[in-house]
Q: What sequence folds into this?
């Protein structure tokens, strides 16, 4: 277990360091996210009243779309450089690779949220600073990365690669999307106060189930 | 998979007769619902199709697990065949539901949790078929299909419980409390006959489809052997 945790930590550090040196993915994700905010502005004709109601929906959709950029890249470095075999030999258990990639993707999503929320607040003059809101986004990012990391590890080995990821991933994300958007609406006070415990339970159960399932099946994805 | 199977034609004939029997019973020997009228009769096949869809997806997840543990391509064929048949029945379920919804809810479609989840479930399995098209290596395709069938199955309980846990206008047939449909005994008998008939039909279609897939695969290999260009590693 200690060796497992150690290799997860090293792998996350490696991916974050690699990303810090190039900053390819984070910059494109951020640019994409901000551009999406502008597109939403035109597409939805955001008046101050309906804008407040749909803020959590917009933030989450922007994160989901920008997140696919990161997910698509999360295994390409190893794939293109041909060092996947080395990685597989270096870890005590193959699930460590999955868990490390999950954490990296999740951290990038949260980093994106931390950047996008102030930008949204600034552009629309609506304060979204709320710890509970960020917490729910974090839980959503976990579920998103748990499913996304598994799917992207498969799509990177297919003929269509990037094309296939959203098609395979988005249907699986339905519970996350529902739970995040509904509970964030309540937390930000834009939807009349309902009990959000049901949604949070759904989110937690989803996160736990998908993470466990993926840890179990991941070795079948990468082992020929 | 053996191609000559004497039981399969018998099973197909039996399935056909059962569905015909359920159809006739539904049309002529089941009372008309008091408030909804004739259109309620679509319900018997609607629910049967929904049941078979979910059963088929459950079966595909089980076949997927069997493939991962046994590594026998026979299970992969069954996984893929079950998904295809399940998808067919899910589409039948959605369309028959729309036919019912038009007079009852006065709209073909509404963004109700049950309708949304069942459609997303269908999309999950459409994605499954796209995934299979995207992988050429049969072994890798089998592994990915098995994994996606297992993970994708999460959408099935979500669909099943959506009408029970979330606020919805979709009727709940059993154990729904206030929204329970209270079918009379005649209607219940018809419902169970159509559920049984559709289940037998599912098994027959599954075996036919799996057989066809196995033959297709063998044909591909023969053709490849004939022109010597079959690339196993791709």
A:
């Amino acid at each position: 277990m200690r060796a497992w945790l150690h290799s997860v930590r090293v792998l996350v550090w490696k991916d974050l360091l690699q990303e810090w040196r190039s900053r390819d993915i984070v910059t494109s994700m951020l640019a994409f996210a901000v551009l999406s905010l502008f597109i939403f502005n035109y597409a939805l004709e955001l008046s101050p009243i309906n804008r407040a109601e749909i803020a959590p929906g917009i933030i989450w959709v922007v994160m989901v779309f920008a997140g696919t950029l990161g997910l698509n890249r999360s295994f390409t470095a190893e794939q293109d450089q041909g060092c996947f075999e080395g990685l597989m030999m270096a870890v005590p258990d193959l699930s460590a690779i999955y868990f490390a990639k999950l954490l990296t993707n999740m951290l990038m999503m949260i980093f994106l949220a931390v950047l996008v929320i102030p930008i949204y607040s600034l552009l629309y003059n609506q304060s979204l600073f709320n710890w509970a809101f960020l917490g729910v986004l974090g839980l959503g990012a976990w579920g998103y990365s748990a499913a996304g990391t598994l799917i992207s590890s498969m799509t990177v080995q297919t003929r269509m690669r990037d094309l296939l990821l959203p098609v395979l991933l988005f249907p699986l994300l339905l519970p996350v999307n529902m739970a995040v958007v509904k509970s964030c609406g309540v937390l930000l006070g834009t939807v009349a106060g309902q009990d959000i415990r049901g949604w949070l339970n759904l989110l937690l159960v989803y996160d736990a189930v998908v993470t466990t399932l993926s840890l179990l099946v991941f070795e079948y994805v990468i082992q020929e | 998979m053996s191609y000559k199977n004497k039981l399969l034609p018998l099973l197909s004939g039996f399935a056909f007769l059962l569905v015909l029997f359920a159809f006739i019973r539904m049309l002529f020997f089941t009372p008309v619902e008091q408030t909804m009228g004739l259109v309620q009769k679509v319900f018997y096949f609607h629910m049967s199709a929904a049941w078979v869809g979910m059963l088929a997806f459950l079966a595909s997840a089980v076949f997927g697990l069997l493939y991962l543990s046994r590594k026998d391509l026979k299970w992969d064929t069954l996984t893929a065949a079950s998904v295809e048949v399940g998808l067919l029945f899910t589409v039948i379920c959605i369309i028959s539901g729309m036919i019912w919804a038009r007079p009852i809810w006065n709209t073909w479609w509404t963004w109700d949790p049950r309708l949304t989840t069942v459609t997303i479930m269908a999309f999950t399995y459409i994605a499954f078929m796209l995934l299979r098209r995207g992988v050429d290596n049969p072994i890798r395709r089998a592994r990915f299909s098995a994994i996606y069938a297992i993970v994708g199955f999460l959408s099935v309980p979500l669909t099943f419980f959506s009408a029970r846990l979330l606020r919805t206008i979709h009727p709940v047939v059993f154990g729904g409390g206030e929204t329970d449909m209270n079918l009379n005994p005649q209607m219940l008998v018809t419902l169970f006959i159509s559920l049984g008939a559709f289940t037998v039909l599912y098994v027959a279609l599954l075996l036919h489809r799996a057989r066809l897939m196995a033959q297709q695969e063998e044909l591909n290999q023969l053709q490849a052997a004939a022109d010597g260009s079959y690339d196993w590693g791709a």
Residues 221 and 230 of chain B are 7 Å apart (CA to CA).
